[in-house]
Amino acid sequence: MSGTQLKNSDNHKKQKTKHRVGSKSYSQLSFEKIDVETVEESDCIAPWELTHTKNGTWSNKESQDVYDKAREAVQTKETETHGPLSSEERNNVFQTAYKDTLLCKSSQPRGYGYMAKPKTGSERFRVQIE
C-alpha cells in the first residue's frame, strides 16, 4: 500500500457514522427528493435517515443518535416558536446536533456533500443567539 492509501485507510477507520448509499452524494439524494409542488429540497434530517438506514435498521448507534437528537431539538424549537421551522432552521439544528452528538470540532457542514459551504463566524454567532 502507498502512503496515500494508508492515510485514507486510517481516516476511514476514524469515521464515527456509516452511510449505506454507496457513492451517491447527499446532494444527489436531496435533489431526487425535491417536492415537485413547492420545488423545495428537504432539510438534511430526512436525507440523513435515508442514507444511514436500510430496511428500518440504522447503520450504527452513532448515526441513530445524531438523528434522534436532531429530531428532538427540532420538536423543542417548534414548541418554543409555536410553529414549524424553516428548512434553513432545521438544517442549523441538524448541524448543531451532529457536532454535539459526535463531539465534532470542525466547522464543515455535514450532510451536504460537495456543495457544503461553511458559515462565516458572524453567521454561526447569529444562529447561536437565536
Average pLDDT confidence is 77
Number of distinct beta strands: 2
Percent of residues in helical segments?
55-70%
Estimated structural class? mainly alpha
Please tally the helical runs, counting DSSP H or I stretches of 4 or more residues: 6
Report the end-to-end length measured between terminal Cα atoms: 49 Å
Order of helices and strands: HHHEEHHH
Q: Which descriptor suits the 3D outline? A: globular
Walk across the major sheet and give the strand order.
1-2
Our count of domains comes out at: 1
What gyration radius follows from the Cα positions, in whole Å?
16 Å
Query: Which spans have pLDDT < 50 for at least 5 consecutive residues?
Result: none
Largest sheet: 2 strands, antiparallel
Q: What multimeric state do the chains show?
A: single chain
Strand content: under 5%
Strand and helix layout:
Blueprint: H1 3-14, H2 26-32, H3 45-52, E1 53-54, E2 57-58, H4 61-81, H5 87-102, H6 121-129
Antiparallel strand pairs: 1-2
